[in-house]
């Protein structure tokens, strides 16, 4: 059995870096040995080289209050100063920090000097309205420059932001506001999405008017700062509501950034809550910014004076926090910020933007890549993508077929692809190859970044040898690790530290291949047990997608009386293959395909050909809900779905309506 599973992990295609890439690479091979020789000294060097410290630190790590780590804790810095002022002072004030493109095609450009000036004013607005160091401020905004400006202004005054994704409901927003006891909400009247304005301010109004406890107690919010973006009508609560532009015009232009301790809280970010109550993941300043800047520079081979970087994530997710806001700006990069969706007003919009801004580094998610694959290569081929030199992937495993397509069609067969594994909790990238050093292997995230101590262990904590799998843990504290769950230290310990003591349990299954490279196998709650055999949903999905007819697939384990669980697959066919054969024939062919590739044990007992899969707003397939459908159970919490009708259609199909 395990030999059959290996077949998929036995990807034979290899992509060594080109001589040209090696010659100009940021990261040099010695970096691994350097980190290995003295991990703490390595991180201390990075913190000193990559950041400006108002007060230098002398201590690197204090783990005496494990599992709450303290990094560089006798040092002081200002995160916003690191992202802004110091670049201006170094003579790079005229460098573009943000090229912004709105969905309707309107644009704006901010140099580092201009962005610094905006953030100083916004910081003064916060101070004017009583925000002090340690206060919480919620952000509920579209992808506009003011979202970045607000985050940096909050950080600048030592307050703590809690960004709530603009697609979340009033209830979700209110529960996050209450949990963090936010004093201000920064929002916009509305934003643009698929050719229309979607209102945001009314959702904030509804969130604040709600009475979730039934006691009539008001929320903790004193003011709502509103950016004018959608020009949609809004109702106004005098005294509480304030226009962003009026407030910014009313304050002083100068603001001096003070240093805050390295362990000063920077932000709270609630995880998507796929199970239970959302967790407010807490990140602090010095360690977070160090690992963010380090990974961004080395994993993406950043040359800030010449690159144009684009991370497509929304600032409402951790990828947007770390790789849209903090890391690129700390590194003085020039980046693109885009308000819209990939397919509006036409399916080539992303490629048009890459051509227009000559984007050199693109960082996106496999789900996006697979939907582009579904539409066909003729769309990106209409645009000049020759500026692209580095590609990144994040969010879920990238199956080899999608990897190759991304490499060939978007990367022109030359750009290295960095598959980056990390989590909201890890704060920054933990596993990724380094371009210019590593020979790439499609489908594998490969190796921990320098300075990270990763292990794959079994249930008893025994480290696994090459060519076997288990649970992914991080054996030593790392600079950008979460410092806790907001207001719930017990839950923090239970969730991540109870299982393996001093090792952080990530909740992901992983496997070493024959070379010792790491393959991520999906969440362990997505691991199925069929007749006592361990099967990964990711692995079977990868097998299905490797069939030429299949565009996308989701696999779940459904309870089965005889085998414990059985494999149920939901499959989207490529439009070019719909109608090639009857549905029954397609299902039979795909069952055989999986059986041939992985083994009979992995053959799906049921395959449903569907038009769409249920996804969260961050693009993750909601396998838990598909499992409810497959098991004929009542469907669980669908709060985080983009479109609930997708699930209703699939349910009807499964019931045979
Ligand atoms: C950054 C982000 C974290 C979970 C994580 C894992 C999955 C993320 C991945 C990946 C395989 C990758 N994940 N990157 N799985 N390969 N390159 O996505 O954070 O939203 O907290 O999700 O996503 O299962 O545990 P977050």
From TrEMBL:
<dbReference type="GO" id="GO:0016208">
    <property type="term" value="F:AMP binding"/>
</dbReference>
<dbReference type="Pfam" id="PF13193">
    <property type="entry name" value="AMP-binding_C"/>
</dbReference>
<keyword id="KW-0007">Acetylation</keyword>
<dbReference type="GO" id="GO:0005524">
    <property type="term" value="F:ATP binding"/>
</dbReference>
<dbReference type="InterPro" id="IPR042099">
    <property type="entry name" value="ANL_N_sf"/>
</dbReference>
<dbReference type="GO" id="GO:0003987">
    <property type="term" value="F:acetate-CoA ligase activity"/>
</dbReference>
<dbReference type="InterPro" id="IPR000873">
    <property type="entry name" value="AMP-dep_synth/lig_dom"/>
</dbReference>
<dbReference type="InterPro" id="IPR032387">
    <property type="entry name" value="ACAS_N"/>
</dbReference>
<dbReference type="InterPro" id="IPR011904">
    <property type="entry name" value="Ac_CoA_lig"/>
</dbReference>
<keyword id="KW-0436">Ligase</keyword>
<comment type="similarity">
    <text>Belongs to the ATP-dependent AMP-binding enzyme family.</text>
</comment>
<feature type="domain" description="Acetyl-coenzyme A synthetase N-terminal">
    <location>
        <begin position="30"/>
        <end position="83"/>
    </location>
</feature>
<dbReference type="GO" id="GO:0005829">
    <property type="term" value="C:cytosol"/>
</dbReference>
<feature type="domain" description="AMP-binding enzyme C-terminal">
    <location>
        <begin position="539"/>
        <end position="620"/>
    </location>
</feature>
<dbReference type="Pfam" id="PF16177">
    <property type="entry name" value="ACAS_N"/>
</dbReference>
<dbReference type="Pfam" id="PF00501">
    <property type="entry name" value="AMP-binding"/>
</dbReference>
<dbReference type="GO" id="GO:0019427">
    <property type="term" value="P:acetyl-CoA biosynthetic process from acetate"/>
</dbReference>
<keyword id="KW-0067">ATP-binding</keyword>
<protein>
    <recommendedName>
        <fullName>Acetate--CoA ligase</fullName>
        <ecNumber>6.2.1.1</ecNumber>
    </recommendedName>
</protein>
<dbReference type="InterPro" id="IPR025110">
    <property type="entry name" value="AMP-bd_C"/>
</dbReference>
<dbReference type="InterPro" id="IPR020845">
    <property type="entry name" value="AMP-binding_CS"/>
</dbReference>
<feature type="domain" description="AMP-dependent synthetase/ligase">
    <location>
        <begin position="89"/>
        <end position="486"/>
    </location>
</feature>
<keyword id="KW-0547">Nucleotide-binding</keyword>
<dbReference type="InterPro" id="IPR045851">
    <property type="entry name" value="AMP-bd_C_sf"/>
</dbReference>
């Amino acid at each position: 059995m395990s030999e059959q599973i290996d077949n998929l992990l036995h990807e034979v295609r290899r992509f060594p870096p080109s001589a040209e890439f090696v010659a100009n690479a940021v990261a040099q091979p010695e970096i691994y040995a350097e980190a290995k020789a003295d991990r703490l000294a390595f991180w201390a060097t990075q913190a000193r080289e990559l950041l400006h410290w108002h007060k230098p630190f002398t201590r690197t790590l204090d783990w005496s209050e494990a599992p709450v780590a303290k990094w560089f804790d006798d040092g002081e810095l200002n995160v916003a100063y690191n992202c802004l002022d110091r670049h201006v002072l170094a003579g790079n004030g005229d460098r573009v920090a943000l090229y912004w493109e709105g969905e309707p095609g309107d644009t704006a450009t901010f140099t580092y000097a201009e962005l610094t000036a905006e953030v100083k004013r916004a910081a003064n607005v916060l101070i004017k309205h009583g925000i002090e160091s340690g206060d919480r401020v919620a952000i509920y905004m579209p992808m506009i420059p003011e979202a970045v400006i607000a985050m940096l202004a909050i950080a600048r005054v030592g307050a703590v932001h809690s960004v709530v994704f603009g697609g979340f409901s009033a209830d979700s927003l209110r529960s996050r506001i209450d949990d963090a006891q936010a004093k201000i909400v920064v929002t916009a009247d509305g934003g643009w999405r698929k050719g229309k304005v979607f209102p945001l301010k009314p959702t904030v109004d509804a969130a604040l008017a709600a009475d979730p406890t039934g006691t009539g107690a008001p929320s903790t919010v004193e003011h709502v700062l509103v950016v004018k973006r959608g020009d949609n009508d809004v109702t106004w609560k005098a005294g509480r509501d304030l226009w962003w532009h009026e407030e910014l015009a009313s304050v002083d232009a100068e603001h001096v950034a003070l240093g805050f301790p390295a362990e000063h809280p920077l932000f709270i970010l609630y995880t998507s809550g796929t199970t239970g109550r959302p967790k407010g993941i807490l990140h602090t300043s010095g360690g977070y910014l160090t690992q963010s800047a380090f990974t961004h520079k080395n994993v993406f081979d950043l040359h800030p004076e010449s690159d144009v970087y684009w991370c497509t994530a929304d600032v409402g997710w951790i990828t947007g926090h770390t790789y849209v806001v903090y890391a690129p700006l700390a590194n003085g990069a020039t980046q693109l910020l885009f308000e819209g969706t990939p397919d509006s007003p036409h399916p080539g919009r992303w490629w048009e933007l890459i051509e227009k801004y000559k984007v050199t580094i693109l960082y996106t998610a496999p789900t996006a890549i697979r939907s582009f694959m579904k539409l066909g290569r003729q769309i990106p081929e209409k645009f000049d993508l020759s500026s692209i030199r580095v590609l990144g992937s994040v969010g879920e495993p990238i199956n080899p077929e999608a990897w190759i397509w991304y490499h060939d069609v978007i990367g022109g067969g030359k750009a290295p692809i960095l598959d980056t594994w990390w989590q909201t909790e890890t704060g920054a990238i933990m596993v990724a190859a380094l371009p210019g050093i590593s020979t790439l292997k499609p489908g594998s995230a490969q190796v921990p970044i320098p300075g990270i101590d990763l292990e794959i262990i079994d249930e008893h904590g025994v480290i696994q040898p090459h060519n076997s799998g288990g649970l992914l843990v991080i054996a030593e504290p790392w600079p950008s690790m979460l410092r806790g769950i907001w207001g719930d230290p017990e839950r923090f310990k239970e969730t991540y530290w109870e299982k393996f003591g001093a090792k952080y349990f990530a909740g992901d299954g992983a496997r070493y291949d024959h070379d010792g490279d790491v393959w991520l196998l999906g969440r362990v709650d997505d691991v199925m047990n069929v007749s006592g055999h361990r099967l990964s949903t990711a692995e079977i999905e990868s097998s299905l997608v490797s069939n030429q007819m299949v565009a996308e697939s989701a696999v779940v384990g459904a309870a089965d009386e005889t085998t414990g669980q059985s494999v149920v697959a939901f499959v989207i066919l490529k439009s070019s293959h719909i109608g090639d054969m009857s549905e029954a024939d397609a299902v039979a062919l795909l069952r055989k395909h999986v059986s041939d590739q992985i083994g009979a044990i992995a053959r799906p007992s049921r395959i449903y050909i569907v038009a769409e899969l249920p996804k969260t707003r961050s693009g993750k397939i909601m396998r838990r809900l598909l499992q409810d459908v497959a098991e004929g159970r009542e469907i669980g919490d669908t709060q985080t779905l983009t479109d609930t009708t997708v699930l209703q259609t699939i349910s009807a199909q499964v019931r045979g309506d």
